[in-house]
Amino acid sequence: MKSRPSASKVKPRAKTTSRKAATKSKSAPRARAKSSASKAAPVKLLAGGNPQIAKGDGDAPVQAYIAAMPGWKRDIGRKLDLLIARCVPGVRKAVKWNSPLYGVEGQGWFLGVHCLTKYVKVAFFRGALLRPLPPGESKNQDTRYVDIHEGEFDEAQMAAWVKQAAKLPGWVQ
Prior knowledge:
alpha+beta; 6-stranded antiparallel β-sheet; 173 residues; 4 helices; Aspartate Aminotransferase, domain 1
């Protein structure tokens, strides 16, 4: 009588699928993953139309924020960014708390931008020292705001405030 091999010595039978079919099934999930990863997910707009952008240092997250600003506010964002870069060579940029921040290395942040439903809010963190005084008050006695509504961008005044603010010690987190 022949003895049967033990279960540990029995090799499982291979499936009878062709090599071509096996290759297709293995590569199909990868192809799908690549195509979905290559498509950028749309940016979520928070209350008031403020873009939800991951925090990060440098120009790239700020440009992503500006690109996601809705409608006419995007043009204001571009104008502000160009004006700040022109007025403050080597300006430091970052996105934190879903808002672009601008600062000077070693001095801290001097300005922040935030989208709201009907305007773009520019916060000068040491705005109480600027002349003329920016119009918007804050709970913080040092901070002053400028609300920019559609068609109301005063480039000359904004440039004067940006130049002054960049020379002051900024907000350090």
